[in-house]
Design brief:
Blueprint: E1 2-10, E2 19-27, E3 30-35, E4 48-50, E5 55-58, E6 60-65, H1 83-95, E7 98-103, H2 110-119, E8 123-126, H3 132-139, H4 156-161, E9 167-170, H5 177-192, H6 198-209, H7 213-222, H8 230-261, E10 265-268, H9 274-284, E11 288-291, H10 300-312, E12 316-320, H11 335-342, E13 348-350, H12 361-370, H13 376-381, H14 385-390, E14 409-412, E15 420-425, E16 428-430
Parallel strand pairs: 1-4, 1-5, 6-7, 7-8, 9-10, 10-11, 11-12, 12-13
Antiparallel strand pairs: 1-2, 2-3, 5-14, 14-15, 15-16
Helix pairs in contact: 3-8, 5-6, 6-7, 10-11
The structure holds zinc ion.
């Protein structure tokens, strides 16, 4: 079959300036020609998509996201999402122009990714963190979440051999953030039936780190828990430290695996894990992807300084699309994102998860271009050819619109980069789910 996309403004993924009024010719699963005219003379191709005023660009490649399989969720191995939510996550990405996604939950198997790609047009691949300590940490360590089953006991080697394109996401457990965000609040909920916020949990943790029993007792009674539970809280705190120690060991195994197998390593980068990421970059250079370098950091100068340091060691600097244009739970403002972009410190854009309500990557590129932080073509490059190059086995022959490339394509409505009108996967136009958010 020969399909023509006519009259589009081409943003080809390489960072080259947009070209107006081109025709993209798709034959079978490939782009076979890019013609510099509004419509080729007497072409017999059918169907024809009249894309005048809209953009045509490579399908977006998302190298860092969660919740796309029925495997364990997140690096901690939480029980999987149900089918409907997995499908909703996949739909959300597809309507945002994503055609390939790397699920970096860590324990999902290659076969669980295949299963997702069987019921959805999006190409889903999975990264691996099946190291011995990581499996032990998630199944027997304090706070094991119960999502990791016998069928997930693969090895990193087996995962890579069966097509996993990267190792990761390694490192979140090392970040004290997890204690505040999940471990302490979850324990309080199950043990006392009390809800504590992340900020309240952090106050308790800091008091325990200082050995301040009186302060812990005061905080507990302030949160509606008997101050007689002070010693029990110190026990909980000890358990979180034990948990982090195991997380650290499993992270070191992941770094060693990236070195042994020469595959990319996706790391959880926040101020809490910066030193670890810097150490890994020192050792592994361009194999390290410093994930979501705009997460949990609110000072643009500080974010730029850290990104520059990691970049100098050869790491790829990734930012997450976040939620600054919608929920604002993770990113109250786009300031850090725009600063990193305008300083030219960003190599890759992904979504991460943002609690399941991430902004479209194309929207971030569009808003950043409007704000003058970056050009449209540079924004598109960071989510197409750049991730294809950073993670070579993720989306081979994709990420650029050029003759010979696989025809994973996005066509937008006139004028707006993020207003996705049509998506092609391997040369076939796929049906876009109705957006109901
Ligand atoms: Zn992540």
């Amino acid at each position: 079959m020969r399909t023509l996309i006519i009259g589009a403004t081409l943003v080809d993924g390489t960072g080259a300036p947009p070209r107006e009024d081109v025709t993209v010719v798709v034959e079978d699963h490939l782009v076979t020609d890019v013609v510099p005219r509004r419509a080729p003379y007497y072409d017999r191709g059918a169907p024809v998509i009249d894309a005048r005023g809209g953009f045509v660009l490579p399908g977006v490649i998302n190298h860092h996201v969660h919740g796309l399989t029925r495997g364990p969720l997140m690096i901690v191995g939480e029980p999987p999402l149900d089918d409907a939510r997995v499908r909703a996550n996949l739909d959300r990405l597809l309507t945002q122009g994503v055609t390939t996604a790397l699920n970096v939950d860590g324990f999902a198997t290659v076969e669980e990714a295949v299963a997702s790609s069987r019921f959805h047009p999006l190409t889903v691949k999975v990264a691996t963190l099946h190291t011995p300590t990581h499996l032990q940490w998630a199944t027997e360590g304090p706070f094991s979440f119960g999502g990791v089953k016998g069928r997930h006991r693969w090895t990193v080697e087996k995962m890579l051999g069966r097509g996993a394109p990267a190792i990761g996401e390694a490192g979140p457990g090392v970040d004290a953030h997890w204690s505040d965000y999940t471990l302490i609040p979850e324990t309080f909920r199950s043990r006392y039936g009390v809800r504590v916020t992340m900020e309240e949990a952090r106050e308790l943790r800091l008091a325990a780190e200082g050995g301040d029993r009186a302060r812990v007792g005061d905080l507990l009674s302030g949160y509606g828990v008997d101050p007689g539970e002070t010693e029990a809280f110190f026990g909980l705190h000890e358990a979180t430290l034990e948990w982090r120690k195991l997380a650290r060991k499993s992270l070191e195994e992941a770094i060693a695996a990236a070195k042994d197998f020469d595959d990319p390593l996706v790391l959880h980068h926040t101020p809490g894990t910066f030193e670890v990421v810097a150490g890994a970059a020192e050792e592994l250079g361009g194999r390290v992807i410093a994930g979501h370098s705009n997460f949990q950091i609110h000072d643009p100068d500080d974010a730029a300084r850290r990104a520059k340091e990691l970049r100098n060691k050869g790491a790829w600097i990734d930012i997450m699309s976040g939620d600054a244009f919608s929920a604002r739970e993770f990113h109250p403002t786009p300031d850090v994102t725009f600063r990193l972009l305008s300083d030219g410190l960003v190599d890759l854009i992904s979504t991460d998860y943002a609690g399941g309500f991430w902004d479209p990557m194309l929207l971030v590129a569009e808003k950043a271009a409007e704000a003058g932080a970056i050009s449209i073509q540079e924004g598109v490059r960071l989510m197409t050819s750049a991730p294809a190059d950073a993670v070579p086995k993720l989306a081979p022959d994709r990420g650029r619109v050029a003759p010979g490339a696989v025809a994973d394509l996005v066509v937008t409505h006139p004028g707006r980069l993020s207003d996705v009108r049509a998506v092609f996967v391997s040369g076939r136009r796929v049906e876009l789910p109705h957006r109901d958010w």
